[in-house]
Design a protein that fits this description.
This protein is mostly helical. It is built from seven helices and no strands. Helix 2 runs parallel beside helix 4, helix 3 (79-99) runs antiparallel to helix 6 and helix 5 runs antiparallel to helix 6.
């Protein structure tokens, strides 16, 4: 049944989109596990539900403030490199939480890291949406966007469970490291994507 999606001319026969899809799946799983590790860290430090809510809100706030800027960049610059920059930045933040030990950071410092995660989201998300038309022909764009939506939903279901399993096995600090590693793996797949120059994409459109 799945074989038809890999036949010549089918959705996953396009290598760029295939790598983009796998990268997105890996990234979403890590991103969905992040709030679980964050919650355990905040509660272990004595933070209450209000503190956790404010820290999580910092990510949403950053995304809201900078999403417009991220959209403008995604419209004017190569989306591939924006994604690489945003994903690498978020991976660095997770690895920082591992190396500096999130349990040793104050709650406001953790909030700042989470705010910066939201900053990365505001650039990575628009670029990820905008790059799809350069990876697929027009008639496959609806299917490509549906597949991305399925990945997001699956990640949001499976990711927290994987995060909880990692925390129970490795602890929250090493879970941040695992999440950062997943972001780097996702980024390495984006490196393999060959995004046509923007002018070339526009000329190919009727």
């Amino acid at each position: 049944m799945l074989k038809k999606y890999f036949e010549p001319g089918a959705l996953f026969s396009y290598k760029g989109y295939r790598n983009f899809f796998i990268s997105g799946l890996i990234f979403v799983l890590g991103a969905s596990a992040f709030p679980i590790a964050l919650a355990i860290t905040v509660l272990d430090k004595g933070g209450d539900a209000s503190a956790l809510g404010l820290i999580l809100a910092a990510r949403v706030l950053a995304g809201t403030i900078f999403m417009l800027v991220g959209g403008v960049w995604a419209d004017r610059l190569p989306r591939k490199w924006i994604m690489i920059g945003a994903d690498s930045f978020r991976a660095f933040l997770c690895l920082f939480l591992l190396i500096d030990s999130a349990n040793h950071l104050s709650l406001w410092a953790i909030g700042l890291v989470v705010f910066l995660m939201g900053l990365g989201d505001s650039f990575g998300a628009p670029a990820g949406s905008a790059i799809v038309p350069s990876l697929l022909p027009d008639h496959l764009l609806p299917a490509g966007n549906v597949a991305r939506g399925i990945v997001a939903k699956l990640g949001n279901i499976i990711g927290p469970g994987l995060g909880g399993l990692a925390i129970g096995t490795l602890g929250s600090n090493w879970t941040f490291g695992l999440i950062g590693g997943s972001f780097l793996i996702a980024t390495s797949l984006v490196f393999t994507i060959k995004e046509p120059p923007r002018q070339e994409i526009l000329e190919d459109k009727p």
